[in-house]
Amino acid sequence: MTGTLINIATVLAGSTAGTLLGTRLPDRMRETVMHGIGLMTIFIGLSMALKTGHPLILLGSIVLGGIVGELLGIDDGLKALGDWFEGRLAGTFGGKSAQAGNFSKGFVTASLIFCVGPMTILGSIQDGLTGDYSLLAIKAMLDGFTSLALSATFGIGVAFAAVTILVYQGALTLGAAWARALLTDPMVTEMSAAGGLIIVGIGLVILELKPIRVANLLPALLFAPVLVALVGRWL
Predict the structure, then answer these.
(1) Neighbours of 115 (CB within 10 A)
(2) 96: region left, alpha or beta (phi > 0 left; psi from -120 to 50 alpha)
(3) What is the pLDDT of residues 194-222, one digit of tens each?
(4) How far is 51 from 197, CA to CA, in rounded Å?
(5) pLDDT tens digit string along 157-171?
(6) Contact residues for 89 (Cβ-Cβ < 8 A; gap 6+)
(7) Which residue of 154, 167, 173, 203 lies most exposed, with the fewest beta carbons within 10 A?
(8) CA 7, 9, 10 angle in degrees (round to 5)?
(9) How far apart are CA 195 and CA 116, in angstroms?
């Protein structure tokens, strides 16, 4: 869990600094920074997705994951959790200020950015199995800078993505020994590719090009290894 705790610390530090600086940064500067993050997010997502060895498995994972995600209402659930946090903290931060109004968006966007991707999966497994948290430490630095930029626009809601990191990344670390016994390299590759497409969706949301319910695609990360096990050998 050492890597996860470092990750949480950098997100809290970055989001605190970003929230304090947010009102002091010109709107045009914050908008340009967010556009840069959005473009970089799409680039990272595409680079991950293009590593797939089986495009049909990737497609199937995204489609099945989207169906299950819609049935479960994952995106609505995350937003409801963000609204609950916002309601509890509205008095603390002076009611519905400009940044408080963005609480849910910041929480959901940051949670997805910080928790989707090969570094999260592989880093958590590495930390849980061997205690080597070097990969998660690199991720922590990236998340720290990203949280600073995000919180300058969305406010303190970004900091509460640390809760999502603790639950999701911590669970992966604790279950790493069991999971690694079942996952093969092709399974991890397709999980990463599915995560890449989801990250592309996050980039589109950040750029406000399309209001995609990205969180509802998260079950694709579970379908990817299952489809590899079922049909990968015939593709």
Answers:
(1) 21
(2) beta
(3) 888 888 888 888 788 878 888 888 888 88
(4) 11
(5) 888 888 888 988 888
(6) 100, 103, 156
(7) 167
(8) 70
(9) 6
Element (H, E) at 162: helix 161-164
Total domain count, the chain = 1
Q: Region of 131 please: left (phi>0), alpha (psi -120 to 50) or beta.
A: left
**Structure tokens given for 216:** 């509802």
Tokens describing residue 174: 């604790």
Phi first, then psi, for residue 133 (nearest 5°) are -105, 20
Cα–Cα distances in angstroms (integers) from residue 177 to residues 13, 20, 223, in the given order: 31, 40, 20
Tell me the per-residue pLDDT of 41-80, one tens digit each, with 9 for 90 and over.
788 888 888 988 889 999 999 999 999 999 998 888 877 7
At 137, which amino acid appears? A
Residue 87's pLDDT is 65
Dist. CA 164–CA 199, nearest whole Å: 16
Which residues span the domain enclosing 50? 2-234
Kindly state the tokens that stand for 210: 């399309």
Compute CA distances 113 → 142, 150, 202, 235, whole Å: 11, 10, 7, 31
